[in-house]
Every structure is written in C-alpha cells, then in structure tokens.
Design goal:
The structure holds two protein chains of two kinds. Chain A is 89% helix and 0% strand. Chain A is mostly helical. In chain A, helix 2 packs antiparallel against helix 5, helix 3 runs antiparallel to helix 4 and helix 4 runs antiparallel to helix 5. Chain A is rod-shaped and about 90 Å long. The mean pLDDT of chain A is 85. Chain B is α/β, with parallel strands linked by helices. Chain B is built from eight helices and 13 strands. In chain B, helix 6 packs antiparallel against helix 7. Chain B is globular and about 45 Å long. The chains are: A mainly alpha, B alpha/beta.
Chain lengths: 209, 247
C-alpha cells in the first residue's frame, strides 16, 4: 500500500486542520487570561514591576493576534474542507456519467452526457483553483502566527528576568511566565501539526492538477 | 457550526447546530455526540450539505479515531444523507440504526462502516464506562425509529419528538414553554402519524429519569419543561392531514 492510499480524504485533513486551529484559539484565550493576571499583579507591584508592564501588553497583543489569525485560518480551512467535499461529489458525478455513457449508443444522448461530464470537470477545475488560492492565504496567515510565537519565546525569558527584580511579587510573575511559556510551547506544537496537514493538503492538490 | 456542552461529568454530551453558514432552504438540525474516554457516539450526524462544518466541529471536541460509533434515529436525509462521506472518514466505525432501514440507508453509500441493525424492542450500547439505551420510538415519525437515553447524564436524545420549526439562530434552550408551543404544534401534528404510537411513547418515557430532552430540530428542554412537553404532547392530536382530507 502506498503512502497516498493510506492518507485520509482531503476534506478530513482540512477538518483536522480546523480542529488544531480551534485548539490554538483556546490556548491563545488562556494566554490572554495570563496577560490580564500579569497586568493586575504588575499594578499591585508598582515600581517593582515597572519592566513587566510592557511585557504584559505584548503578551495580550500576541494572544489577540493569534486569536484573530487562527479564526481567519479556521474559516479558510473550512472553505478547503467544503471545497474538497464539492470536488469529491463532482468527481463521483463524472464517474457515474461515464458509466452511463458507456451504455449509450445514440449520439444525441451521448452528447447530453458529455455536457454533464464537462460540467462536472469544470466544477473540479474551479474548486481546485479556489483551493490553491485558499491554501496560499492560509499559509500566509499561519506564518503571521508563527512570527508572533517566535517573538514570545524571547518575551518569556525577558519576563523571568523582570520577575527576578519584583521582590515579593517574583513568585506571581514567574508563575505567569510559566503559563505563557506553556502556552507558547503548545502553540508551537500546534503550528507544527498545522504545517504537516497543510503539506498533505498541498500534496493532494498538486496530485489532482 | 456552534458547539455547546450539555453535560461534562466523567463523560461528555455536546450539541452541534445553529450553523450560520448553512445553505439557505435546508432545515436547521441539531447533532449530538457522547464522548466517553477514547470512544464516542455521534448521533444523527446530519445531511450532506452540512458535512464539512460538522466534521470540523466534531474535531474541536474529540480526535477523529475516537468516533467509533454512529447512530441514525431513522432514514431521513437531514439525519444521515452524509453517510457516504462519514463512510470514508470513519472506515472502522459502526452505525447503529433501525434494522428496518438498512437496505434503504445503504443507498447513501456504505462500503466500510459496519451496519448494526437495532431490533424493534431497542438495545443498548456500552461505550467505555457509560451504557446508552436505544429506546424504540416507532412511528414518531418514521416507522422504524429510536431515541438515545443516557441514564447517568439523564439526557434523552429525542429525535424528531420535541422538534420545532423556527427562525434561524433561535436559542438552544426552551426559555418559555408556553410561547414555544406555537413553534412545535404544526411539526408534531403533521409529521407524527399515530396517536397510539405517541401515547405509548409518552407512557414509556414518563418512567425515565430525564433532566434534559434534546430533539434533532429546535430547542432543548430542561427540568420541568420535559414534563410540560410530555403533558402537552400526550394531549395533542396528531396525524391531522388525514382528518383534514376526510373533512
């Protein structure tokens, strides 16, 4: 059995991608919560957490951006999944029309069936082009998230350094940094999974063209 | 497709529906899943037109390989015309559906999923820790028809019983039973053919301990609204098209 045979249908892969993006949104929401907690701790800590304040703003912005882009990609993944279903139904229709054609001898009837086959093929061409465009948009949006996640890794280490200067608030701020670090690592894992699925979808799209 | 948690104590019930991207002109449907560890039962998974958003919504709440079982209360297209696509998605799954409809449902395309016909008297399904009951609801409205009861969560998935025809985006739960009656009356009078079947079902369902009654269309009934529904349904004359015709 070849690799291609054991792959799930494209609509399943696209839906799995949407599932990972949903998890990313949930993680980003937790990150946003951590940023809110950090803001309140920083406010209580006053001058001791001066350096922490801009960090909390960055974390909140990063979480909001992730939610924004993940929502957009999620919608794009659904478009790909729906398009794959449409393509499969058109393909199935074309296959059945061919079976009908093989049983006909009347030229006029064959012509009618040929028109239906062409129509199904046209649907597939449109869907494949739409999928290709959607996939490139999807990759761009994922790159945006990835860029922000990479910056967050630096922010986590800066947070720890700022936390060490916050006296009695150090423990709280470290705990917030831990949460952000955990969320960043979760986002990185999900991005890796998304990239694998996008690669699989792109491979399927190329095979069809 | 909106996802709503109905129950989450050891195992989980999730409702899917109110899909604002659904093509116009098709009836809105509620789909449900019970997730119990690494096994899940997807109930009345819906029509082919909502398959893609439905699959994506399922993957938000569980892994694809944990959907081991499907259930179709009856044979209608809004219940299970997506079967051919689920067949490709979940080739190792099992479909629990009325024995009566097997040769009909196979028209939707069934090559890999194993069809397990539910006998007339109903049956049970053991997931990891939870045993679900397939409760007979024949002639409500299909001649071979079942509901799913979870004695632990005290939820009855009641198929077309309790269904309502409403505007898009209606709330998920019944908030005012008396006002909701107008949304349900025509559906039950016209789609339900048998007063005898209806009263037999009401008598059996009254014996169950139910906190939530979850129909395939419309809103979910909670608490006392379940009893209110049973009282209302028992008193309702159904099969009204015949009466109109006879005059």
């Amino acid at each position: 059995m070849s690799n291609q045979e054991i792959q799930p249908p494209a609509f399943v892969t696209a839906a799995m991608l949407a599932g990972h993006l949903y998890s990313m949104m949930e993680t980003a929401k937790l990150m946003l919560l951590s940023a809110c907690n950090a803001k309140s701790v920083a406010a209580r800590a006053g001058d001791k957490a001066l350096g922490f304040r801009p960090i909390t703003d960055f974390i909140a912005d990063m979480a909001n951006d992730t939610i924004h882009y993940a929502t957009k990609i999620n919608q794009l993944a659904l478009v790909v999944s729906s398009a794959s279903v449409t393509s499969m139904r058109a393909n199935d229709g074309a296959r059945r029309f061919l079976e009908v054609k093989e049983q006909l001898s009347n030229e006029q009837q064959i012509h009618i069936i040929d028109r239906l086959i062409t129509k199904s093929d046209d649907v597939q061409i449109v869907v494949q082009q739409q999928t290709k465009d959607t996939m490139s948009q999807l990759c761009l949006q994922l790159d945006e998230i990835h860029q922000r996640v990479r910056s967050s890794i630096v922010i986590v280490s800066t947070s720890r350094s700022e936390a060490s200067r916050a006296g009695e608030f150090q423990q709280y701020l470290n705990s917030i940094a831990d949460n952000v670090e955990l969320a960043v690592s979760e986002l990185q894992r999900e991005i890796t999974e998304c990239r694998k699925l996008i690669e699989l979808l792109s491979f399927n799209a190329v095979m069809k063209l | 497709m909106k996802t709503s948690n109905l129950y989450n104590k050891g195992h989980r019930w999730v409702a899917f529906g109110r899909d604002d991207k659904k093509p116009s002109g098709i009836i809105d449907t509620n789909q449900y899943i019970v997730i119990d560890g690494d096994r899940a039962l997807l109930m009345d998974p819906g029509g082919i037109e909502i398959f893609a958003p439905m699959l994506a919504a399922v993957l938000q709440v569980c892994r694809i390989d944990s959907v081991t079982d499907l259930f179709a209360s009856h044979q209608d297209p809004d219940i299970i015309s997506s079967l051919g696509l689920w067949d490709q998605t979940l080739p190792n799954a099992r479909l629990h559906a009325p024995w009566l409809w097997e040769s009909f449902l196979r028209h939707f395309g069934l090559n890999s999923i194993k069809y397990l016909g539910i006998p007339d008297e109903g049956s049970t399904l053991m997931l990891e820790t939870v045993e679900l009951q397939f409760i007979p609801a024949h002639y409500l409205h299909a001649s071979g028809n079942y509901h799913v009861y979870d004695p632990e969560a005290r939820i009855l998935m009641s198929g077309d019983v309790g269904a309502a025809l409403e505007e898009e985006g209606a709330p998920l739960y019944v908030e005012n039973f008396d006002e909701h009656v107008d949304n349900m009356k025509l559906f039950h009078q016209r789609w339900m053919p048998s007063n005898r079947a209806k009263n037999n079902w009401v008598r059996r369902v009254r014996e169950l301990d139910i906190d939530m009654m979850a129909p395939q269309h419309g809103r979910i009934f909670r608490g006392d609204d379940v009893k209110r529904f049973l009282d209302w349904f028992e008193a309702l004359e159904v099969g009204t098209a015949i009466e109109k015709e006879v005059g």
